[in-house]
Amino acid sequence: MPWTSRTNWASFDAVVVRSTWDYQHDLPRFHAVLGEICESGAALHNSLALILWNSTKRYLHHLAQRGVPIAPTLWLDQLNVDDVRRAFRRFESDELVLKPQLGANSQGVFRLCAREGDEWVDDVGAFYGRRPLFIQPFVRSILDEGEYSLFYFNGQLSHAIRKIPRGGDFRSQEEYGAEIQSVTPTVPLRSAGATAVAAVPEVPLYARVDLVRANGSESFWVMELELIEPSLYLRMEASAPLRFAEAFDRRMQDRCAD
Predict the structure, then answer these.
(1) Hey, which of 81, 102, 103, 178 has its CA 20 to 30 A from 133?
(2) Per-residue model confidence as pLDDT tens digits over 132-154
(3) Does the predicted TM-score (pTM) go above 0.85?
(4) Residue 69 and residue 222: Cα distance in Å, rounded?
(5) What are the domain boundaries of the chain?
(6) Where are the beta strands (DSSP E) in the chain?
(7) Which CATH fold topology does 74-137 show?
(8) Spelled out in words, what is the top-level CATH class assigned to the domain 141-257?
(9) pLDDT of residue 34
């Protein structure tokens, strides 16, 4: 059911947000629709409070304040070329990644290299303008080891995958050609993922934690904690669809009990 369609939400017992991959283009309208769902009496998953909290990447700052390891990050309300130049020195990195605070699917993500000078200024300036952004040092481990995703249903780990970017690219999304592998997460991965989920304001029905190995370390950084519309890769684990269904069923039973 498209979130933009005219819908009698009261005709549903529950609404589970799944593939609203365009919400970032009209966030106020998206939030308004979610509000309508809540007012209709249908149970919204994840909850409106969690979705509001997770709607911009600023939630990463909140996670860091709660002890969750994230990559070193500089938050900017709008693009400032001098701030970007200084970030190379601040992070002691010859490569940076710029990301929008409101975005999805790697839209507006730029990888900058110090040796290329200011070649990036026009393209980055054209995209950002007054758009809030954040800057991180480029994490080189993503090129060979890739990015890990751990999936949680009702706060319990379900399954995990590794996403390895296509040669010549750094983006880990499947639509950009990344290779997807099912993996058994190591103890450090499980620990980092559990720390992130435990820092969420309430237990979500579903959550995906994206992690990369910290530069020159055996530990991991949380790159994303997705609570709105993450791909759950249920196909990568035979029992994952049943675990998701059971988690949802428990939610609905608890609601009826209340």
Answers:
(1) 178
(2) 999 999 999 999 899 999 999 99
(3) yes
(4) 6
(5) 74-137, 141-257
(6) 14-16, 43-45, 74-76, 95-100, 110-113, 133-137, 147-153, 156-164, 179-182, 206-213, 220-226
(7) Dna Ligase; domain 1 (3.30.1490)
(8) alpha beta
(9) 97
